[in-house]
Amino acid sequence: MKQFLKFTLATIVGIIIASLLGILIMFGIIGAIAGSSETTTVLKPNSVYEIDLEGTLVDRSQEDPFSAAFAEAMGQTAQKTIGLDDVLTNIEKAKNNDNIVGIYLKGGSLNGGFASIKEIRNALIDFKKSGKFVVSYADNYSQKMYYLVSVANKVLINPQGMLELKGLSAESMFLKNTLDKLGIEMQIVKVGTYKSAVEPLVNTKMSDANREQVTVYLNSIWKTLLTEVSASRKISVEKLNEYADEMMMFQPTAKAKEYALVDSLIYLDQVDSILKSSAKLVDKDQELKFVKNSAMTKLPDTSKFDKNKVAVIYAIGEITDEEGDGIVAKDLIKTINDVAKDSAIKAVVFRISSPGGSAYASEQIWHALSMLKTKKPLIVSMGDYAASGGYYIACMADKIVTQPNTITGSIGIFGVIPNIKGLNEKLGLTYDGVKTNKLSDAISVNRPFTPEERSLMQNYINRGYELFVKRCADGRKMTIDQIKAVAEGRVWTGEDALKIGLVDKIGGLNDAIKLAVDKAKLKTYNVSEYPEKESFETKLMKSFSQDVETRFMKAQLGEQYNVYMQIKNLSKMNGIQARLPYDLNIR
Question: Least enclosed by CB within 10 Å: which of 61, 513, 524, 581?
Answer without folding.
Answer: 524
